[in-house]
Amino acid sequence: MESTRQSKIARLIQKELSEIFRLQTAKLGNVLVSVSTVRVSPDLSIAHAYLSIFPSAQAAKILENINRSTKSVRYELAQKVRFQLRKTPELAFHIDDSLDYIEHIDSLLDMDKKLHPGHDDKEEETAD
User: Fold this and answer.
1) In this predicted model, what pLDDT tens digit does every residue of 17-75 receive, in sequence order?
2) Sign of torsion, CA 66 24 71 17?
3) What is the CATH number that goes with domain 4-96?
4) Of 38, 52, 69, 82, which is the most buried if we count CB atoms within 10 A?
């Protein structure tokens, strides 16, 4: 269970990292990096940031570039939160693939509808 302090720090880091990535990706053009979730360890020493990267075909390459520049991102984050946090946590970046998972589930449901047409209509009639 996450404490109130952990969740407040996670929201602060998420907000500031989102701004940092927004400014950096504006230079690249057709790339969008958003911070979907940040989870902070109980001792506040590590922050795991989950990133949604669009287009997802380039996600691995972009995540690799972000991981290479983790120190500079942490420094930039430290400059932004220096009055709220005494010590900036170490950053660990992960790809948030929940949108890909949702798309996969939707495609499976669409396939099921194509294989069993009219199946939903019968359920709705019996529900009335």
Assistant:
1) 999 999 888 887 788 888 999 999 999 999 999 998 888 788 888 899 999 999 999 99
2) negative
3) 3.30.300.20
4) 38
Closest Cα to residue 17, out of 46, 49, 63?
49
The C-alpha atoms of residue 59 and residue 84 are separated, in whole angstroms, by: 31
The domains of the chain are located at 4-96, 98-128
DSSP 63-112: HHHHHHTHHHHHHHHHHHHTTT-SSPPEEEEEE--HHHHHHHHHHHHHHH
Q: Residue 31: what are its φ and ψ, rounded to 5°?
A: -125, 135
CA distances (Å), origin 19, targets 12, 33, 77, 93: 11, 10, 10, 15
